[in-house]
Amino acid sequence: MTLLMGPGEPQHDSREEKYFHIIRNTLKRPQQVYPAIAPEGTDRTRRHWRCADREICNGRCTADQDPDNIHITRDGTGDHQHNVGVEGHVKKAVNALKRRAQEEPDATPSQVLRTTIGGVHSEEILLMLSERNALKRNVNRVQNGTRPPNPTSMRGVDLPMNYTVTKRGEVFIHDSGAEDEERVLIFSTQEKVRHLSASGTLFCDGTFKTAPTQFALLFTVHGVVLGYPVPLVYALTMRKREQTYR
Predict the structure, then answer these.
(1) At what angle do helices 86-103 and 132-145 cross, to 10 degrees?
(2) Is residue 150 in a domain?
(3) Is the N end or the C end of the chain the one with fewer CB atoms within 10 Å?
(4) Which residues lie closer than 8 Å to 52 by C-beta, 6 or more apart?
């Protein structure tokens, strides 16, 4: 069954995704259904659903609003047996994309697209899908919705271990400490440090405008590798003082 979301419905909320997933597997006839919030009484405890192909089908059902305790109170989808249209398949593909983005917040947009949209081979469906870059932005929005907001200050913020190492397990962030009032984060690896020590010429530069809002300065050190200047060390500092540079 393909669920087509109604206007104004939140599309990235994990409770909504859970609700839709349960409803998909509960109705007697799993064809495309259009969910719409419809209050009953004053507590808004129920939600009504109807078939998206309203011109040919009058399939409807009513379910509890709470995704943690869903109960189908009325299932009128017994005659709801028609095939899903192309638009329904498109919505199904997009919903699968969003679910995968929620389940794998650390996956790249390309990986999410490859494991979801990559399995769609119908030319009709592919033509109706958004452009690849738009789908990637969609993945980014969903993934960002699962992450905590950025801190306003780095004081007292501990960096999770998985954000301090490369995919090969090599440490690349060197932190002066969460309680350091002049905290400095240095980004480099042992391999880049070796290139730096072997370089006869160093290029250093600091910029304030491109530094994240939690920091005052982005400082970079370039070395010469195989005859070309290469960035080897990045540093984020919370102060602009000479002592920080040292």
Answers:
(1) 40
(2) no
(3) C
(4) 2, 4, 32, 33, 34, 85, 87, 88
Identify the bridge partners of residue 184 per DSSP, sorted by sequence position. 237
Query: Quick one: pLDDT band at residue 63, thresholds 50, 70, 90?
Result: confident
**DSSP state at residue 165:** B
152 in a domain, yes or no?
no
Helices (H), the chain: 14-24, 86-103, 109-115, 123-128, 132-145, 190-198, 242-245
Task: Band the pLDDT of 21: cuts 50, 70, 90.
Answer: low
Q: Which of 85, 119, 145 is the last residue of a domain?
A: 145
Q: Which domain holds residue 65?
A: 14-145
* Tokens 């780095």 belong to residue: 154
In the chain, % helix, strand, coil (3-state, to 5) comes to 30, 25, 45
pLDDT: is 112 or 87 the higher one? 112
pLDDT in tens, 114-148: 999 988 888 878 888 889 999 999 999 999 988 87
Asked whether the predicted pLDDT for residue 83 surpasses 80, the reply is no
Phi/psi at 14 (nearest 5 deg)? -65, -35
Q: Count the Cβ atoms, other than its own, within 10 Å of residue 27.
A: 19
